[in-house]
Amino acid sequence: MNAQSRSVPSRLPPGQQETEKWPVLHYGTVPRFDPARWDFKVFGEVEQPVRLTYQEFMALPKTTLTCDIHCVTAWSKFGVTFEGVPAKAVLDLAGVKASAKFVMVHAEQGYEANLSLEYLFAPDALLAHRADGKDLAPEHGWPLRLVVPRLYFWKSAKWVRGLELMAQDRRGFWERNGYHNQADPWKEERYSDPW
Ligand SMILES: Nc1nc2c(c(=O)[nH]1)N[C@H]1C(S)=C(S)[C@@H](COP(=O)(O)O)O[C@H]1N2
Ligand SMILES: [Mo]
């Protein structure tokens, strides 16, 4: 095989365009953050429901992760370095029951996104408070956002406040509004019919 016929795997999923800047995209307004009232809950199909205050959450061990992000509106941004708590570590605090197969991610103002549990157990799923060496900007999800780089970025809820473990799948906000339930950018799972 010569060099010209070798195919190099693309970093860009089908139908996407690379962007240098980091667009801001969300429904609704940027919520106000009150550290005294903020909490993070893990509930549903768990052994022990967990409620963490902001202080308790921030005391959890952190890690960093560099990944590409892909929005369904066709922009991709390469190499963002997030810092935060692995989603798995938070799930382990509550003890996920064997019956749990799906997660509803809950954020401020009722925003929800659903995904299969395996994505949150993956080592690249982070509850992030910093990006590229700085605290997250309010419009990018401060004080905390989910980062699930394997799925279109609408699953990565900004201003996240909790994880609900579920035995049955349920649709989140964009999933109820015409977007795909799975949202794998490499399979171009952008849109789907309502259930
Ligand atoms: N709470 C909340 N999180 C959200 C959204 C939203 O509307 N509300 N939009 C999603 C979408 S569609 C995208 S592409 C990313 C955008 O994140 P960014 O604004 O930091 O680029 O946030 C996701 N998280
Ligand atoms: Mo998006």
Task: Determine the structural class based on helices, strands and strand pairing.
Answer: mainly beta
Quote the beta fraction: 25-35%
Task: Give the N-to-C terminal Cα separation.
Answer: 47 Å
Summarize model confidence as the mean pLDDT: 95
**Sheet having the most strands:** 6 strands, mixed
Question: What is the N-to-C succession of helices and strands?
Answer: EEEHEEHEEHEEEEH
CATH architecture: Alpha-Beta Complex
**Helix-residue proportion:** 10-25%
What molecules are bound to this protein?
ligand MTE, molybdenum atom
Count of helix runs: 4
CATH class: Alpha Beta
Morphology: globular
The low-pLDDT segments are none
Give the CATH topology. Sulfite Oxidase, Chain A, domain 2
Count of DSSP strands? 11
CATH superfamily: Oxidoreductase, molybdopterin-binding domain
The Cα radius of gyration reads 17 Å
* Count of structural domains: 1
Structure description:
The protein is 11% helix and 31% strand. With 195 residues, the protein is mainly beta. It has one domain: Sulfite Oxidase, Chain A, domain 2 (Alpha-Beta Complex), CATH 3.90.420. Strands 1, 4, 5, 8, 9 and 10 form a six-stranded mixed beta sheet that branches. β2 (39-44) and β3 (50-53) form a beta hairpin. The longest helix is centred in the middle third of the chain and has 8 residues, at 87-94. The chain binds ligand MTE and molybdenum atom.
